Amino acid sequence: MANKLVLVTHGDFADGIISSIELVLGAAVPIASVCVQAHETVLAVVERTEAAIAEFGPDEPIVVLTDIIGGSTTQSALRVRARAAGNVYFVVGLNLGLVLEIALLPLIARTRASLTGSEFSSDPVSERDTKTASSRMTTVVREKNEAMLRRAVAAAKEGIGLLRDLMPDDQDLNRRQTDPDTAEL
């Protein structure tokens, strides 16, 4: 299943990305958009972003992606992050490749049922032990999810560049594509 995403962008960029995601992956991606218009305040964008996050479940990972690092979208996300639950992650620099990478990551939910391995095999006996184990579990889940998100960001960065640098042997491309007017996408 795809991860839950909230795209926060200037203008209707987020809706365009959603249209592209649906073209590539189908409508199976749980995704919301916050399209910021020129007349909106940062506070209004914060409220709309928090409302979009609230539409998703509290235990499932939610990734909020913004378009420009210094823009009002990211300024709003910084305010949302200060109040957000531990299952919400924030990524800056939205593009289609990055959204595709993140949508398909195997992010881990914060529920004990979704976790396996020796790090969670202890059987706490007291309330204090339960709280300690829960806190430790949340920290480990967050660290694992953040590591996956960092790898997705790095992979998306690898796909940005001059086409000639990314695919220098355009002769090979020409050999595979006989008629550019009729070739399928």
Protein described:
This protein is of the alpha/beta class and 185 residues long. It is 48% helix and 12% strand. It has seven helices and four strands. The protein has helices spanning 13-25, 42-54, 72-83, 96-103, 127-158, 163-166, 170-176; strands at 4-10, 31-36, 62-66, 88-92. The chain has a four-stranded parallel sheet with strand order 2-1-3-4, sandwiched between helices. Helix 1 links the parallel strand 1 and strand 2. The mean pLDDT is 86. One of its GO terms (molecular function) is transferase activity.
CATH architecture: 3-Layer(aba) Sandwich
| 3D shape | globular
State Rg: 20 Å
- The top-level CATH class is Alpha Beta
Number of strands: 4
The quaternary organization reads as single chain
Helix percentage range: 40-55%
Can you describe this structure in just a few lines?
By secondary structure, the protein is an alpha/beta fold. 48% of the residues lie in helices and 12% in strands. The protein is globular.
SSE inventory with pairings:
Layout: E1 4-10, H1 13-25, E2 31-36, H2 42-54, E3 62-66, H3 72-83, E4 88-92, H4 96-103, H5 127-158, H6 163-166, H7 170-176
Parallel strand pairs: 1-2, 1-3, 3-4
Helix pairs in contact: 2-3, 4-5
InterPro entries: Bacterial_PTS_sugar_comp (IPR051471), PTS_EIIA_man-typ (IPR004701), PTS_EIIA_man-typ_sf (IPR036662)
GO biological process, one term: phosphoenolpyruvate-dependent sugar phosphotransferase system
GO molecular function: transferase activity
